[in-house]
């Protein structure tokens, strides 16, 4: 299966280079790799495991990361630590 790539703005000068790839031998399981850049400088990487998603649904999740409250909270906590 082919890997899906996307670059998307998140907040202000923060952008994400996303890579969605299938998990071998596990149908409908995906890894969404998120490489973060702030003002063009690498700021870190994190990933999400998507289980039980069709390819189309997993690509939709990747395209809509910016509006996904859970993922944005996880990205914020990854970059800045836990916040209340």
Description:
With 84 residues, this protein is α+β, with helices and mostly antiparallel strands. The protein has one domain. The chain contains two helices and four strands. The protein has helices at 55-63, 69-80; strands at 4-11, 14-22, 29-38, 41-51. A four-stranded antiparallel β-sheet has the order 1-2-3-4, with helices on one face. Strand 2 and strand 3 (29-38) form a beta hairpin. It is globular, with a radius of gyration of 13 Å. The mean pLDDT is 92.
Secondary structure blueprint with pairings:
Elements: E1 4-11, E2 14-22, E3 29-38, E4 41-51, H1 55-63, H2 69-80
Antiparallel strand pairs: 1-2, 2-3, 3-4
Task: Please sum up the structure shown.
It contains 2 helices and 4 strands, in the order E-E-E-E-H-H. By secondary structure, the chain is of the alpha+beta class.
